[in-house]
Specification:
The chain is mainly α. Helix content is 30%, strand content 0%. It is elongated. Residues 76-86 have a biased composition (Polar residues). Residues 1-19 have a biased composition (Basic and acidic residues). Residues 26-37 have a biased composition (Basic residues).
């Protein structure tokens, strides 16, 4: 009597050569390690690489010229049509 596939004592996927071997496992392990390291470095407050990033420079409002106030407003008043022009 043959044993069923799920009863097999052999490792699953042992004949699957692609994307499941030990090299792929090492690669994924290293990738996770690098991500962990990068996250740890990003969380350090005194990290020189991240110094100044994320900060924006704002000019105080008195240095920014107000375009609407500096230009005189043109008051447009339509001229009344003269009855004598025809």
């Amino acid at each position: 009597m043959q044993i069923k596939r799920w009863e097999s004592p052999r490792r699953q996927g042992r004949n699957d050569k692609g994307r499941g071997g030990s090299a792929r496992t090492r690669q994924l392990k290293k990738q996770r390690q690098m991500l962990r390291q990068r996250l740890k470095e990003a969380n350090k407050p005194n990290n020189n690489k991240n110094y100044g990033q994320g900060e924006e420079f704002f000019l105080p409002p008195f240095f920014v010229p107000d375009v609407h106030r500096s230009r005189p407003r043109a008051s447009f008043q339509p001229q009344k049509a003269d009855a004598n022009q025809h």
